[in-house]
Amino acid sequence: MKIIFPTTCPSCSEELFKPEEEANWRCININCPAQVIERLRHFVSKDAMDIRGLGEKIIEELVELNLIKAIPDIYRIDFNKILDREGWKEKSVSKLKEAIESSKQQPLHRLLFGLGIRFVGETTAKKLVEHVNDISEFKEWSLEQLINVEDVGPKVAQSIFDFFHSQKNMELIEELKSFGLNTKHEKKTVAQGKLSGKSFLFTGTLQMKRSDAEAMAEKEGGNILGSVTSKLNYLVVGADAGSKLEKAKKLGKVEIISEEEFLKLVT
Ligand SMILES: [Zn+2]
User: Fold this and answer.
1) Residue-wise pLDDT tens digits, 2-12
2) For the chain: N or C, fewer Cβ within 10 A?
């Protein structure tokens, strides 16, 4: 039996497109209702902008009524038109209004995640915003800078790079700013010191408390990583170190030092 794949989108009837290295056919029509609904659903979801009261059914209704076509439209819904609709009461409308209004103050990582950049999950979004004061700074970032962010590999970096180099996307961000959405973040201030630009990871049982050791490194400008990767400079090894030590040895690039050697570096 032969399986026949659809060649047109079930939602908008546009021809489907299959990226070379992917298994699935995709609809790339930016105005495709199914895509629009999916994008909106992600934007308002709990881990993104968390706009309660804008569930999937309601999004579908608002899209159908042409009240929403894209993300920024959420912030200019004509609520009078909703009030005329069956099933909507003044109270539910004012609740929705409030939820939309307060979403403008969400922290930046939620907005970044909500934009639905391919491969950018919640954790990656959180890591990324630590490096900027405003979301538009990403427009100036090179691929290399992106790859240097913890958690970001080449595939993710390319996707972020492409997103912020699209005129349309930058317009969308400007539009959201004009509605008063928070696009700012307080960049983590990195202390300057003997360990500036160096990354550390502690493993095994140390003489001192691990949190104290980490604080010492950070105070001198060191960066604490969560796992052994090629971005790690120093693995500080205490007693009974296990898999992290093995991995660092295998990588061959990581300097493996003792707690004493670390103390010499830091003091
Ligand atoms: Zn479609």
Assistant:
1) 667 778 888 88
2) N
- Return the domain boundaries, the chain: 33-103, 108-178, 199-266
Gap from CA of 31 to ligand 1 centroid (Å): 8
Cα of 4 from ligand 1 centre, angstroms: 18
Q: Ligand 1: distance of its center to the CA of 32 in Å?
A: 4
- Determine the distance separating the centroid of ligand 1 and the alpha carbon of 36, expressed in angstroms: 9
Phi, psi of 97 (to 5 degrees): -55, -50
The CATH number fitting domain 108-178, selected from 1.10.3720.10, 1.10.10.10, 1.10.150.20, 3.40.350.10: 1.10.150.20
Question: The tokens of 31 are what?
Answer: 């105005």
User: Model confidence over 98-120: pLDDT tens digits?
Assistant: 999 999 999 999 999 999 998 99
**DSSP 3-state of 203:** strand
Fold classification of 33-103 (topology level): DNA polymerase; domain 1 (1.10.150)
